[in-house]
Inverse folding.
């Protein structure tokens, strides 16, 4: 479950992270934003389950931010927090479908009661859409053909399926139309599971996420499911019939080819293709300290103004801001999740000067990177 905490005050974000016994709610991943605009940018690029946001913030207040996030992700639950107990705020919050409205200072009991209710609803919704791994194979998600939601999946040992890197690269390859890259990723993924001794049934379970990812990209491209697959095609049932790693791999490759063909037939404009190419190059080259928007434009044989135009027409933030966002998110993962120190992380995300990196990190997240180094 992905949770975004939005507040321009670092001390209150720390309070929310530390005062609640989050372990009670299972596996969670936290993101942070220091203002509403940054939160909307994150919501535009990352699936969110829950957002906790202050109302009084610079650049974009919490109410406007919540409205944008709900527009981008209608199922994201939002809890707004205000320093003022104003009825008008509560009324506006209800109109845009906010889950709850809390008033600072928020005591632990009130906050926990709110989270119990909201996260309980999220878990119930996930369970309703869950593809269960049964003793006799894989059962179809009950509403799959008429409601394309995020299908949650977990292996028997509690591990979520498909590493984030594999999923990200597959998404990029689908959007860019790179069939050879997709084949290579799928081959490597199945090979890695084989060499790690994962049994056949475990492989099927671990690849459920790759099916969902593939179908979500089909939906995102605006392609109707029935125009790509036969009416009786049931992917979560079909995968249960694969009895060897080779059969599983070939089935996955064929499914991805069908989706790729469906997206290609839908067609995109040259501007859209160029925009996605620019974005992909940023995601691939952010670790290079010499990489910037000027070098990106030069390598694409266009000028910087054209790159900015591409991003604007796609509805994204400006390319320099996106490069910074990618670098900061990668740095956060390196420090918080992989235990890298500030010097190592700064070099791995394209900064030659650790001190300048720390300054940028603090401006972006509201706290110094050393905060995450010190976490247990």
């Amino acid at each position: 479950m992905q949770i975004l905490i939005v507040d321009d005050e670092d001390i209150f974000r720390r309070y929310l992270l530390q005062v609640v016994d989050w372990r009670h709610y299972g596996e969670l991943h936290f993101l942070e934003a220091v203002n509403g605009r940054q939160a909307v940018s994150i919501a535009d690029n990352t699936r969110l389950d829950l957002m906790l946001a202050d109302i009084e913030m610079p650049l974009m207040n919490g109410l406007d931010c919540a409205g944008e996030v709900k527009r981008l992700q209608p199922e994201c639950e939002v809890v707004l927090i205000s320093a003022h107990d104003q009825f008008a705020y509560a009324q506006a919050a209800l109109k845009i479908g906010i889950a709850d409205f809390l008033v600072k200072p928020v005591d632990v009991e009130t906050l926990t009661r709110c989270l119990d209710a909201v996260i309980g609803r999220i878990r119930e919704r996930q369970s309703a859409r869950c593809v269960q791994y049964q003793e006799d194979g894989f059962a179809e998600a009950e509403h799959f053909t008429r409601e394309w939601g995020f299908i949650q999946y977990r292996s028997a040992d509690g591990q979520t399926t498909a590493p984030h890197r594999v999923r990200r690269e597959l998404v990029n390859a689908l959007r860019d139309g790179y069939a050879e890259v997709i084949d290579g990723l799928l081959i490597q993924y199945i090979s890695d599971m084989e060499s790690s001794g994962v049994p056949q049934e475990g492989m099927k379970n671990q690849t459920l996420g790759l099916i969902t990812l593939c179908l979500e990209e089909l939906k995102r491209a605006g392609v109707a499911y029935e125009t790509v697959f036969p009416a009786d095609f049931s992917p979560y049932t079909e995968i249960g019939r694969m009895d060897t790693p080779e059969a599983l791999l070939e089935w996955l490759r064929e499914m991805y080819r069908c989706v790729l063909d469906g997206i290609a037939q839908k067609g995109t404009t040259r501007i859209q293709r160029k925009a996605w190419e620019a974005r992909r190059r940023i995601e691939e080259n952010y670790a290079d300290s010499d990489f910037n928007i000027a070098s990106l434009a030069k390598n694409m044989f266009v000028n910087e103004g054209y790159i900015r135009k591409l991003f604007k027409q796609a509805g994204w933030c400006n390319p320099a801001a996106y490069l910074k966002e990618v670098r900061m998110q990668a740095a956060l993962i390196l420090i918080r999740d992989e235990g890298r120190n500030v010097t190592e992380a700064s070099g791995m995300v394209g900064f030659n000067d650790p001190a300048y990196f720390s300054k940028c990190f603090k401006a972006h997240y509201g706290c110094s990177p050393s905060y995450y180094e010190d976490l247990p």
Observations:
- Strands lie at 2-6, 29-33, 50-54, 77-82, 100-103, 133-134, 137-138.
- Residues 245-266 form the longest helix (22 residues).
- DSSP finds 18 helices and seven strands in the chain.
